[in-house]
Amino acid sequence: MEYSPKRRMCSVRYGERDAAGAAKASAALLEDQVRVLDPDDPEIRVTLHNLARWHGEAGDAAGAAAALAGLLEDLLRVLGPDHPNTLATRANLDHWREEAEERDLKNGNDRS
């Protein structure tokens, strides 16, 4: 399956400062990757990382946290809990979870 045009679309959207469009394109790319690649393929982890970043930059803290949670599961399984990428992802996940909670509280939503 050829999915490089979808990866290019993610970059184009992001280059146009369309983080929400880049996140949408990344989600479509991820669907293809999950379908055709080995679950441990590093490309899937790169796409999950980019998806999280673009969700966050688009103002979707909950979407960023969800993508990072999926990425963290993969990293724990493939690289282990002490790998630098796992540790960085855990820190980023904590950040976006806190951001999502703050936004929910600001908007009158209580997640507890």
Key structural traits:
Serine Threonine Protein Phosphatase 5, Tetratricopeptide repeat; 5 helices
Low-confidence stretches: none
Main pleated-sheet profile: none
CATH topology: Serine Threonine Protein Phosphatase 5, Tetratricopeptide repeat
Structural class: mainly alpha
Total helices: the number is: 5
Number of domains: 1
Under CATH, the homologous superfamily reads Tetratricopeptide repeat domain
What order do the SSEs take from the amino end to the carboxyl end, as H and E?
A: HHHHH
Mean pLDDT: 84
Q: What fraction of the residues are assigned to beta strands by DSSP?
A: under 5%
By DSSP, the count of extended strands is 0
Identify the CATH architecture. Alpha Horseshoe
Shape: globular
- Radius of gyration from the alpha-carbon trace, in angstroms: 15 Å
Q: What is the distance, rounded to the nearest whole angstrom, between the alpha carbons of the first and last residues?
A: 42 Å
Helical content band: over 70%
What is the CATH domain class?
Mainly Alpha
Would you mind describing this structure in some detail?
The chain is globular and about 40 Å long. The chain is built from 5 helices and no strands. The chain has one domain (4-106): Serine Threonine Protein Phosphatase 5, Tetratricopeptide repeat. 78% of the residues lie in helices and 0% in strands. Helix 1 runs antiparallel to helix 2 (19-36) and helix 2 packs antiparallel against helix 3 (42-57). With 112 residues, the chain is mostly helical.
